[in-house]
Amino acid sequence: MNGIINVLKPPGMTSFDVVAYLRKLLQIKKIGHTGTLDPGTAGVLPLCIGNATKAIEYFTDKGKEYRAELTLGVSTDTQDSTGRVIRTSDILPEREQILETINSFIGKQMQVPPMYSAVSIDGVRLYKLARNGVEVERPPREIKIYSIDILSIIQNKKVIFDVKCSKGTYVRTLCADIGEKLGCGGHMSFLLRTAAGNFKLQDAVTLEEIKRKAEENRIEEILIPTDSALNQFGYVKLNNEDQKKLINGAYVPIRDNMIDDELVRVYDSSGNFIALAEVNSRYGKKYLKSKKLFR
Predict the structure, then answer these.
(1) How far apart are alpha carbons 48 and 51 in whole angstroms?
(2) CA–CA separation, 292 and 266 (whole Å)
(3) Are 47 and 33 in contact (CB under 8 A)?
(4) Which of 94, 183, 187, 247 is the most buried (most CB within 10 A)?
(5) Residue 244 contacts by C-beta under 8 Å, 6 or more apart in sequence?
(6) Are residues 98 and 217 in the same domain?
(7) Are residues 106 and 192 in the same domain?
(8) Is the pTM of this model over 0.90?
(9) Nearest Cα residue to 25 out of 218, 223, 215
(10) Do 50 and 84 belong to one domain?
(11) What whole-number distance in Å separates Cα of residue 255 and Cα of residue 238?
């Protein structure tokens, strides 16, 4: 079994819990997710199965989309509603100030990962240190907020918004940072991932639906072919001789209008997806060199 299932992760499960559940259900060991979701967060969690696990790196690079709720006036140690309240404020900002401040976060910026996160410092996960009451300095990382669409502001206390952001962005940290800039503090009180790259919420399937399909031997109906999920790359079709060369690690000549270092999907003469390959220039000509084999 090879391909991707766009899972609708329920709240209350870790991403690894979902992987473990499907390993047992589908009786297959090679399963991996394309980006961790916090246990309390629901939403899109694409899982790569079989040789599709070779493509995980090409999905984790993609941007993410979320619907979030920010609660102002209450700060927590985890930056979300699961944490201990460490600060409150009865003085809330005006609506225009909220709008202006939130929109000021659009664009590139440096973000400090939260202590309660899976980021590793010296080989130790930050959340493990945080659970033991240890706080360490975390180097900020560059992220990008592509857009924020504010849907509702309720009594200047709760703000519901949609955000599109780069990989590595912590929306709860974004919420906490907005609260700090407003001077009243704040935390993320709800989060739903609505998209991860090309995988959308409206196409995601529940664990119950996956279980039913597996019991009916119809899992193929919800299994997305690896190559169709990699449609951001172009494609080439090789004859029998050239596909053997590529599989064995040799350079294969191609047309000259392809771009150096470009990745392309490679298909055999029968139209089967066999590899991702990289375009290289050698001796004034263009060649393909295998990067990942999926045959």
Answers:
(1) 8
(2) 10
(3) yes
(4) 187
(5) none
(6) no
(7) yes
(8) no
(9) 215
(10) no
(11) 12
CA angle 282, 288, 290 (to 5 degrees): 125
Query: What tens-digit pLDDT sequence spans the chain (295 residues)?
Result: 899 999 999 999 999 999 999 999 999 999 998 888 888 899 999 999 999 999 998 887 789 999 999 999 999 999 999 889 999 999 999 999 999 999 999 999 999 887 666 666 666 766 666 676 767 677 889 999 999 999 999 999 999 999 999 988 999 999 999 999 999 999 999 999 999 988 999 999 999 999 999 999 999 999 999 999 998 888 899 999 999 999 999 998 887 677 778 899 999 999 999 999 999 888 778 889 999 999 7
Residue 260 is a catalytic residue: no
Check the CA dihedral 129-131-136-142 and report its sign: positive
How many independent structural domains does the chain possess? 3
Cα angle vertex 252, ends 249, 254, to 5°? 150
Which tokens go with 287?
Answer: 């060649």
The H or E element that residue 54 is part of is: none
CA distance linking residue 247 with residue 277, whole number of Å: 10
Q: Based on the domain organization, do 161 and 92 belong to the same domain?
A: yes
Which entry of 38, 80, 227, 242 is annotated as an active-site residue?
Answer: 38
Q: What CA–CA distance (Å, rounded) separates 134 from 39? A: 21
Look-up: residue for tokens 């989060």?
191
Map tokens 């390993």 to a residue: 23
